[in-house]
Amino acid sequence: MTTLRQTWREQSRAPLPAAAETGLWGELAAEATRCEPVAVNRHKRRPGLLVMHDGSITSSQRCRVHPGGPAL
Asked: Fewer CB within 10 A of the end CB, N or C, for the chain?
């Protein structure tokens, strides 16, 4: 049986509706709250759009990031 983590690593995506039923959303929210104090600002100013390895398209981003914990 393939786990969500394996699917994520292999395909850069995973079916979250199934994970949400197991209470993962609550665990992720709690984990994010715990990790927020160590989050850092990330600003990537790339001109135009960038095509990612999975075929998605991204542009400049401005966000805060932190390392994931067991839930992520």
From this structure: N
Q: pLDDT tens digits for 29-72?
A: 899 899 888 888 887 776 778 888 888 887 777 788 888 788 87
Largest CA distance in the chain: 41
Q: Which residue(s) pair with 58 in the sheet?
A: 50
Beta-strand runs (E) in 1-72: 40-44, 50-51, 57-58, 61-65
Give the C-alpha distances (Å, rounded to integers) separating 9 from 15, 26, 36, 42, 48. 13, 22, 24, 23, 27
